[in-house]
Write a structure and sequence with these properties.
Blueprint: E1 3-7, H1 10-13, E2 17-21, E3 25-28, E4 34-37, E5 44-48, H2 56-68, E6 75-78, E7 98-102, E8 109-111, E9 113-118, E10 121-126, E11 136-139, E12 142-143, E13 150-153, E14 158-161, E15 170-174, E16 179-183, H3 192-196, E17 204-207
Parallel strand pairs: 1-6
Antiparallel strand pairs: 2-5, 3-4, 5-17, 6-16, 7-15, 8-14, 9-10, 11-12, 11-15, 13-14, 16-17
């Protein structure tokens, strides 16, 4: 995949708007009931980076970033300020935030993921772009050390243990993460006059599968 491992300026994404998108096919049958189906196993996020522009310097920074990505050609990292940690925003990251699975004595690789719960239902989101230096891992109550007990692939979010966790031992992790995205346009339109009057450019961003 064509991906630049660089993050869109976090100071500009801070004021952006956006969030998860689902695709649902809804068919109303003759008796009035509905049949609903989704072809997507995972949601896809969309953002508008233009809302975060506060000055002409911000616009210049954004244009430079856009040009360096060749428009839509290269994907990049994006910090979603509304959802970028394994825990609640008011809490500190711990190695016990998210359950990744249980050991079986042979499995050594575990995918980072974040579980979203509501009542008795939940959705497990694969995390593929963890932030370097933020990942903390534990097996049961034992906090492990990166490079000694495990390695983390920052391109895929895959944790690989030097020794497979024992059977029924719970594997957990805490982390910060970015969203892999690209520009959803090949053109950026700006106007100095309109920007000074309070108008801002539209800069659509869309999540990509990696």
């Amino acid at each position: 995949m064509q991906f630049h491992d660089v993050r869109f300026p976090a100071s500009l994404s801070f004021g952006s708007v956006g969030g998860p998108e689902r695709r649902t096919d809804v068919v109303t049958i003759s008796n009035g009931f509905e049949e609903r189906n989704s072809p997507w196993a995972h949601s896809r996020r969309r953002y508008d980076a233009g809302v975060g522009m506060r000055s002409l310097d911000d616009v210049e920074t954004m244009i430079s970033f856009f040009e360096a990505r060749f428009g839509q050609l290269y994907a990049f990292r994006w910090k979603d300020w509304s959802d970028y940690r394994s825990c609640k925003p008011s809490q500190d990251i711990t190695p016990f935030d998210q359950i990744l699975g249980e050991g079986d004595g042979t499995q050594t690789a575990y995918q980072l993921r974040k579980t979203y719960r509501s009542g008795s239902y939940n959705y497990e989101r694969p995390i593929v772009k963890p932030v370097s230096g933020t990942v903390r891992v534990a097996v049961e109550q034992d906090v492990l050390q990166e490079t000694i007990d495990y390695t983390i692939d920052l391109d895929t979010g895959l944790i690989t243990f030097d020794r497979a966790p024992d059977p029924q031992m719970q594997v957990t992790a805490g982390f910060e993460f970015d969203v892999p995205v690209r520009f959803d346009t090949d053109s950026i339109q700006t106007s100095v006059a309109s920007f000074q009057a309070g108008e801002i450019p539209t800069v659509p961003i869309v999540e990509v599968r990696v």
